[in-house]
Design brief:
The complex is a heterodimer of chains A (150) and B (108). In chain A, 72% of the residues lie in helices and 4% in strands. With 150 residues, chain A is mainly α. Chain B has a single domain (2-107), classed as Glutaredoxin, CATH 3.40.30.10. The chains are: A mainly alpha (150), B alpha+beta (108).
């Protein structure tokens, strides 16, 4: 794991705070445009990395210089995974809005909002909790026999 | 020789081979997990400064059979084994140094 893959842990926390505010506003105002903007942010973060997303750039250009030097770093991959999860939820929400099913819109935005809120306030790590569970469900292995065979 | 190297890749063999005289800290990690880094640093340090205690890190994603068998649900999960390789405790999430040291102290 090269050091160049490491980013200031405060970056993703800052981004999660903005995301929380944007998603909460989208939910309260039922605004599809706010959600669309957030979806684009998620897509850039998931595709190019959270440090290249608009919130990541905002953190580096405006916020970081005003803070103490970073003391904690994390790998890019965990926050990138979280951006992907956010993207999936917001795409589902957009589909709900396009199909005019408010329940899907509200449900999916709420799910993304909850994840962003937990991340910004408690530093909740979506990848830690969900990634292995998803792997466990989607990848079948013949349990303990896999060892014996090896 | 081929068979031997294949056996050497098994996570169970890896754990058994590196069982500590007092305890073994088996850490399950995954790629999308930031606290796994901090946990690795902590457990490596504890193993380095406490003779008889070893640290083994397992990539949970690659060892799903073992993950299912041990009911590991999230990363990092640290399973503490005694000198015979029996599980005596586990920590889900990033453990604090005092928590690990306390669990190890009970073993002695």
């Amino acid at each position: 794991m090269s050091p160049s893959n490491l980013i200031d842990v405060r970056g993703p926390r800052f981004a999660a705070t903005i995301t929380t505010l944007v998603l909460a506003s989208a939910l309260l105002t039922q605004s599809i445009w706010l959600l669309l903007a957030q979806t684009v942010v998620f897509a850039i973060g998931a595709g190019l990395g959270p440090h290249r997303s608009p919130y990541g750039l905002l953190f580096r250009k405006l916020v970081k210089a005003r803070l103490a030097p970073p003391t904690e770093f994390e790998d890019l991959k965990p926050p990138q995974f979280a951006q992907l999860v956010g993207l999936l939820f917001s795409v589902v929400a957009l589909i709900g809005a396009v199909l005019d099913v408010p329940v899907i819109f509200a449900g999916a935005v709420s799910a993304a909002l909850a994840a962003a809120f937990l991340n910004s306030v408690f530093g909740y790590c979506l990848g830690c909790e969900m990634y292995l569970l998803i792997k466990r469900v989607t990848h079948h292995s013949n349990s303990i026999r896999a060892f014996v065979a090896r | 020789m081929k068979a031997k190297s294949e056996i050497g890749q098994s996570p169970l063999v890896k754990i058994v081979d590196s069982l500590g005289e007092q305890a073994t800290l088996v850490q399950f990690s995954s790629a999308f997990c930031s606290p796994c880094r901090a946990t690795r640093a902590l457990l490596t340090d504890i193993a380095a400064t406490n003779p008889g205690i070893t640290h083994v890190e397992i990539d949970a994603e690659k060892e799903l059979a073992l993950v299912r068998t041990l009911h590991i649900r999230s990363t990092p999960t640290t399973v503490i084994l005694d000198s015979d390789g029996r599980e005596v405790g586990r920590a889900v999430g990033a453990p604090k140094r005092e928590q690990v040291l306390h669990a190890l102290a009970i073993l002695q």
